[in-house]
Amino acid sequence: MKDKIFGVLQRVGRSFMLPIALLPIAGLLLGIGSSFTNPTTLEAYHLTNVIKEGGVLFTLLDIMSKTGSIVFDNLALLFAMGVAIGMAKKEKEVAALSGAISYLIMNTAISTLISAKGGVDAMAANTTTSVLGITTLQMGVFGGIIVGLGVAALHNRFYKIQLPQVLSFFGGTRFVPIVCSIVYLIVGVVMFFVWPLIQSGIAALGQLVLESGYAGTWIYGVIERALIPFGLHHVFYMPFWQTELGGALLIDGVTVTGAQNIFFAELASNSTMHFSVSATRFMSGKFPFMIFGLPAAALAMYKAARPEKKKVVGGLLLSAALTAMLTGITEPLEFTFLFVAPAMYVVHCILAGLSYMLMHIFNVGVGMTFSGGAIDLTLFGILQGNAKTNWIWIVIIGLIYAVVYYLVFYFMITKFNYKTPGREADDEETKLFTRKDLNLRNEALKAADKCTSDTVSALILAGLGGKANLVDLDCCATRLRISVSDPALVNDALLKQSGASGIIHKGQGVQIIYGPQVSVVKSDLEDFLDSPKSDEPFKFEPDNTLLKEENPETQKDATASFELAAHMNGTVVNLEDVEDEAFSSEVLGKGIAVEPIEGKLYSPCDGKVDMVFDTNHAVNIVSKEGCEILLHIGIDTVKLGGKYFEAHVKDDCEVKKGDLLISFDLEGIKSEGYKVTTPMVICNTDDYTSVEAVSQGEISKGDKILEIK
């Protein structure tokens, strides 16, 4: 349960990254545009004669300012769409549309109730705002996140839904925006009554954070860095940046909530004398350790490297240090600490928290788009002037941090002999580490205890010659049926290591026998193919000792023959005459069909039920001779979702010829517009010399219908 919650939180954090990725360009436009259209800045840099109001350059800068501002003004809508895209499993474009529609509907429902109550004047002070021209409650980015998460949940639940024939046009992905619209109309009504209570709680918590002083800022900084290895830092800092938890301020007559929103509203305002430190305390602490501290730690690693490896490691560390300094992207350096010496990362977290606290103490008012590099420092600190930001303290504290980071990390590396880049063994690669490396190591540790489904899927994929070699994937009762581009790339030894009991090659087709659990193997493989891990499957050494004689199941006696009995009372129909190409083309195998006169399906042989389909419209049986038989009631009846069908057997139960397998409402199925022709298909037809129909016309259950040799 804990792992499941943790996994969901990680996905939520990752889903935030799509809208967050818009902030750098929006901040760049707003930062440059607002800076050079602000009279104070123009006078400070003596640009009043170059950039004049009404002039071409001023107008272009004003456009930049306003286009950047529109992104921050509508972040909630962007989160509604972005989070829905990030959390949706497939058909993400439908999730995005549904997120936008749901957000508009929710706010319109709230707006209508505000009007019914007497308008904005009847609401509590500073609790309403205007979103895309809609008067609604001040929910900030939380409103968008609520929509995005809810829409994603509905989308993942309903994007494959099958509706009755008469409503089938509205099934599948078309149903998602419909159900989301209905749900978020209701959510809008509920939020009108519930959100004011939540808002009061957030405001009280925000006030508590505000009153926590410097100690609270230090704790915030430590936690923010400590959550990075888990990918949960976005979930942690986003409420401070985008909601009242990070403060609320009246700017140019408008109440703005959230630390980042406050900073950018002040940036766009001509009346700002000094940026609010109560807001920037949640941002400015990144600058000293990202621009100065971590590059100094990189220098310490370089100095501690073995002489013969300094040339190689120097290029790697220089690149990582420059990236951290310019953009604030610190992953290669931070994850290298975490990978080779977690104690160094603990020290880093403590120093990072101290950096936040020092920026708060020295009233530094520099904000950022998403990280604390020199680009953001220049735009939102230096260009705004020291009088408004106190940016000079970033440089002063940063230089001290450079010395501290260098001395502390060099001491730890040499004292405890940490294997930082350049100090590893000769047979190990000199590299910096990333989150991917950390995740791969954790997965490897788990795999050492248990052969996971991903490991089996990776073995199968490697044995089939990799993802690019796969053309088609399907399964029958006991085996995977796969088409490949190049059969020469298939490695039977690896497939055997995955648990296969036999492998059959036929041209570009490969059949891998796993037995009754094959449907689970197929589902796991499909999930693995949809994951990024499938692009770089694990490398396995084939165990050729497993390549013994083929499984007896694949070695049929060419002289043996047996019969199958009719599975229904009715009229025999040749398989090529069945009105479904999947059956008539014999792509599933050879067989026969019956047009039934009653709603009962019987076993055609003695054997074992391999699988009863969830919708009870079909069943797989393996006869005592090893014949894999699919019995499928009707055409496309899976769309009925189990309506009209009742199974009388379960998976793995033994059956005798003539036993009742499934009963069904013959007329009910016909009334829904479905054909009831019922094929009996031999899924492992390739194992036999011939599969011949031996009866025509009227037939009764138990009569001979197929002869198999």
Description:
It is a single chain. With 709 residues, the chain is α+β, with helices and mostly antiparallel strands. Among the domains are: 2-212, no CATH class; 471-554, 2-Layer Sandwich (Gyrase A, domain 2), CATH 3.30.1360.60; 562-708, Glucose Permease (Domain IIA) (Distorted Sandwich). Helix content is 49%, strand content 14%. The chain is built from 25 helices and 22 strands. The strands form six sheets. It has an eight-stranded antiparallel sheet with strand order 17-13-14-15-19-11-10-21, with no helix packed on it. Strands 5-6-8-7 form a four-stranded antiparallel sheet. The longest helix is centred in the first third of the chain and has 37 residues, at 175-211. The protein starts with a helix and ends with a strand. Residues 447-451 and 541-559 have low confidence and may be disordered.
